[in-house]
Design goal:
295 residues, 10 helices
Amino acid sequence: MIPALLTTLLWSCSSVCAARSAKLVGGSTANLLRMLIAAILLGIWAHTFGHGLGGPALPWFIASGIVGFGLGDVAMFAALQRIGPRLTMLLTHCIAAPLAAITEWFWLDSKLGIAQIGCAVIILIGVALALAPDRGMKIPRPVFWSGVVFGLFSAAGQGFGSVLSRKANHVAALAGHTVDGGTAAYQRLLAGIVIAFIFFLILRSRDAKPAPGIWPKAWFWISANALAGPSIGVAVYQWGVATTHTGILMPIVATVPVATQLLLWWIDGQRPTARTLVGGIIAVAGVIALGTVGR
């Protein structure tokens, strides 16, 4: 429970920082720079206190990084461009959780109890209620359905990437090898950077050129995003993946968009709707219940 809750808090902060940095220097540029900063920080940890690029689980972590950090993030960005953040987050988080749980169940024989499944469903219902888009969305049908497809790929990237990380930890355990969260995040991130760099080369011409004197402010938000997201945030998430069923971990992490809206309310005074508050309360109640039955 502790890794899941910490991940939710860190990723919520990361979302706020990511939005600000993307507005300043463009999405693809901000994404690549935050990953490079995170790779340096995690590399120092992994090569000093961790296991560097060694260990029997390395191929599985690389595969997880390609699927989750790489392809999943690319698909999420494409979905955001087409159907907006609310529906994209709804698809990504609410589908990734059951998809990961089912995959882990059949592939790794990691089953959940009825009470745990029930609590996870309550969490996802709360998130869906909070993030469901308003009626009357003015999006052309072809654009809408292409965005939905990208959203489904984003969910698959997050879900399968998490299960691949679980598989990596199983392989390491069978070999008598323990992988800390920082090392796991570092190994995944290196693979994801390759995909992010390709994405950057394709989209950099579409990003608006930063205004003069904007970089000092941009570097602050990029660095904060790197800390809360792909470095400390992902390291804590990998800690959770190594110790917790994805069917329990991911429904809790699915509350990140709700927590982000509440954080923006505190920072910018952007008051959430009544539906968002009710959905958030339901999701939090599910998290508390899950923590109780999971003991």
